Amino acid sequence: MSPPVPSKILTDDVSLLMVLIDSNPHFWSSIKPHFSFSKFLSHVLAFLNSILLLNQLNQVVVIATGINSCGYVFDSSSGSVSQRAESLLPKLEEFAENDESLSERDDDSGNGVGSSLLSGSLSMALCYIQRVFRSGPLHPQPRIICLHGSPDGPGQYVAIMNSIFSAQRSMVPIDSCVIGIQHSAFLQQASYITGGVYLKPQQLDGLFQYLATVFATDLHSRNFLQLPKPVGVDFRASCFCHKNTIDMGFICSVCLSIFCKHQKKCSTCGMLPNVCRSIFGQAQTRDPSASQQRK
Amino acid sequence: MADKQQQVVVKRARHKSSVKDPGTPGVLKMTKDRFTFMANDPSSPVKLNVEFRTIKGHKFTKDGTKQALLNLTQDQGGNYIFEFENFPDRNVCKDFVASAIALSGEAGRTVPEKSAVPIQDEQLSAAEMERRIKLLQEDSDLQKLHKQFVIGGILSEAEFWATRKKLLEQNYSRRPKQRVALKNDMWSTKPLADGQSNRVTFNLTPEIILQIFAEKPAVRQAYLNFVPNKMTEKEFWTKYSRAEYLHSTKNVIAAAAEAAEDEELAVFLKQDDMLVNEARKKIRQVDPTLDMEADEGDDYMHLPIQDHGLPRNDNKDVLDSQYEPYRRSFSQHLNQHAAVVLQGRVIDVELGDTRSVAEALARTKHAELAKDASDVYLDKERLERISRMTEIEDLQAPRDPAVAPLSIKDPRDYFDSQQANAFSTLGDTVSGAKQLKCSVSTREAYCSLKECISEIKFQGLTEPTINSEVAFKVLNGLAQNISSNKYHLGRNPNESILDSLPKITREELLLHWSSIQELLKHFWSSYPITTKYLLTKATKLKDAMSQIYPKLQEIKESVQSDLRHQVSLLVQPMLQSSVFMDQAFCCRL
């Protein structure tokens, strides 16, 4: 999609920033009285332009996270001249059209806000980063920042955890700026495991200040800067069968898949009952105690 | 009253000649290889000092019987019976005795004297006992757990070690003992000169001799050649010292004169040809891809001493070339000395016998030479290295990007994040009420989204992007957040609550944590409860767990008030686990 960065001597503070913008229309319409998408965009565009100004070699790539699809809407290194962030607007509009066309018939969904496809955009960001890694020995230091507000979709738990682990392995930190109402357990875990920053701004109309103070810091400077640290991380997982978030559950002793109810057969690794006969057999007696390990 | 468990055990006990005998009270003290018993009454004839070598076995009464007895038997038939005040004391001694007996080379068979149901009948080999003891000695946490559970009678030895087989089987290779390196100070040639007479005394210790032989191969060769054929050792060293003295006076002419007279002395005064050869070989082995121009001029052994290629203007007398070989360069000497010190000790011979030292060194040098000469592999390696250094980037295949290795984290890291679960349960109930409600249809939602985008397209970004007051508030808020975190969680962002607690409290908390883990592990492994044995085991575990509960409460109270909240958050899952265990136990039927 874009030519690889020419290999020059890169200083420590050159960064490649992958920005994942939450474009869930339900979420934005539900939050409308407090904070509008246009205000949000103005803060974000100003932020992106400032990143591009910090260093000539900085690169910014923006991925929009919709409810049916995800797509690249901006890449600062495409074209001969480094572009301003405003050029993402027409592409974003296109993306919104596309996303709308992909959604099923107009169902008047008055039932809560669905979740956006965070796992998809995380994967796209990681793929782009891998391509940059293979472009040559010298490249900017990549990091991912998620501007997310939609609630967590427990159905995406497995996919998101997989992307988090691959980000950890490639040493790419995932920063999270949560603009929704509640905390996001997935993003907390993501930032904790990959060594990024997790922040839930108290004042959304000061979003630009949060972005510029905390998220504009490059990886090299983070070694000697104090950034806000969350008090704790919500490590809860979702069960594999119903995708509910659970505190206590049953775990298959072979593949460590998590279930909320006792299972005859593990759906992930397909452990046949006769192997675990002694354990499953107990379920038929009066003994209701946990046969598999309890979390 | 026990000191470190493995070193010395001191307990009050009564020595009895038979089980019925009331016994003489006294103090029993046990060390690794012997035990002694001193009666309280000094006039009593009972004084024992017995080595564990003679003790072949030990018997003991079961816990809970009337007397806590320990019977140490010898193979000739004699035995020593001790009665203790309580069972834990006796158990401590019993374990100590078992390990001591094992250490003195015999397998300890433990036979309960009144055998009801044989609980564990383990045949422990001495090696196994030794490994266990060593493991306990090395890991103090493990030792504490062992003490708490096995000595406290909650778990038996077999159960405790059953889950730790991997630790026992590890072949911990003997860490090489630390060896003393060669001294770095150069043997100064300042001999002891007493002002009265013209005598100069040199002191040569075996260490110094080793170093001389290592640094000056010509001297070593001379030693091997001359001694004991041509001269005794003492004469050899006298000559050597004379040569050193001459060098120290820096009187080259005198040196030349003496060398002319005494050919053996000349050996010490001249340049060391063996060193020269070694240096040449080393230069040849230098990586040719290093950007260094190494040529004849770098043969520093033969350079004129005062410069190393640098022209000098000050007038040093230019001596006749006949005196050149008798000059010595300090820098050469220093380099050689440094090389030898860094190489370390290459031989393992006792330093007393000079000849054997010389021979050993000569042998190693020969071996090295032979190895280098015949080392085809070395050449191949060098070629490979050259090709690696001179690679052409464009023709290389792309290399895979660097990846972080799999990190198996210390479970203690998650200790602090458990408190977040407490937060989240709070947080959910608060924010759960404010569930987002989207009462708009999908199409309308998308419409409003697109409207927002076009609004910006036409109006541009708002000016100013952010209100200055709002920005100020945000900055203040962030700063406060960071500083309060620092206050609560410590200066170091990686520091945790644990570190801010006093050391004793922290140790206790961690110990409780690991003991609860151990108890839970054993508890769940004994499910489903099918036999009586499992039932008793589960009961014991449950009781042990309920004992930890008040201790945790105590810790919570003892902590400073500002840390109390965080500590109670830390402690909460531990308390919960004990409650759950109770519940699980109750509803097992």
UniProtKB/TrEMBL annotation, chain A:
**PANTHER family linked to this entry:** GENERAL TRANSCRIPTION FACTOR IIH SUBUNIT 3, TRANSCRIPTION INITIATION FACTOR IIH TFIIH , POLYPEPTIDE 3-RELATED
Give GO cellular component annotations, separated by semicolons: transcription factor TFIIH core complex; transcription factor TFIIH holo complex
Q: Does the keyword Transcription regulation apply?
A: yes
Q: Which InterPro entries match?
A: TFIIH_Tfb4/GTF2H3, vWFA_dom_sf
Q: What does this protein do?
A: Component of the general transcription and DNA repair factor IIH (TFIIH) core complex, which is involved in general and transcription-coupled nucleotide excision repair (NER) of damaged DNA and, when complexed to CAK, in RNA transcription by RNA polymerase II. In NER, TFIIH acts by opening DNA around the lesion to allow the excision of the damaged oligonucleotide and its replacement by a new DNA fragment. In transcription, TFIIH has an essential role in transcription initiation.
UniProt entry tagged with the keyword Glycoprotein: no
What's the protein called, per UniProt?
A: General transcription and DNA repair factor IIH subunit TFB4
Compartmental location: Nucleus
- UniProt-listed GO biological process terms: nucleotide-excision repair; regulation of DNA-templated transcription
**What does the record note on quaternary structure?**
Component of the 7-subunit TFIIH core complex composed of XPB, XPD, TFB1/GTF2H1, GTF2H2/P44, TFB4/GTF2H3, TFB2/GTF2H4 and TFB5/GTF2H5, which is active in NER. The core complex associates with the 3-subunit CDK-activating kinase (CAK) module composed of CYCH1/cyclin H1, CDKD and MAT1/At4g30820 to form the 10-subunit holoenzyme (holo-TFIIH) active in transcription.
Q: Which UniProt keywords apply?
A: DNA damage, DNA repair, Metal-binding, Nucleus, Transcription, Transcription regulation, Zinc, Zinc-finger
A single Gene Ontology MF term assigned here is: zinc ion binding
Q: What is stated as this protein's family in its record?
A: Belongs to the TFB4 family.
From TrEMBL, chain B:
Which controlled-vocabulary keywords does the entry list?
Answer: Nucleus, Repeat, Transcription, Transcription regulation
Question: Which SUPFAM superfamilies does the protein's record reference?
Answer: BSD domain-like, PH domain-like
Q: Which domain of life is it from?
A: Eukaryota
> What would be one Pfam family of this protein?
PH_TFIIH
Q: Which residues form the BSD domain?
A: 111-172, 196-248
Report the family membership.
Answer: Belongs to the TFB1 family.
Name under which the protein is recorded? General transcription and DNA repair factor IIH subunit TFB1-3 isoform X3
Question: Which species is the source of this protein?
Answer: Coffea arabica
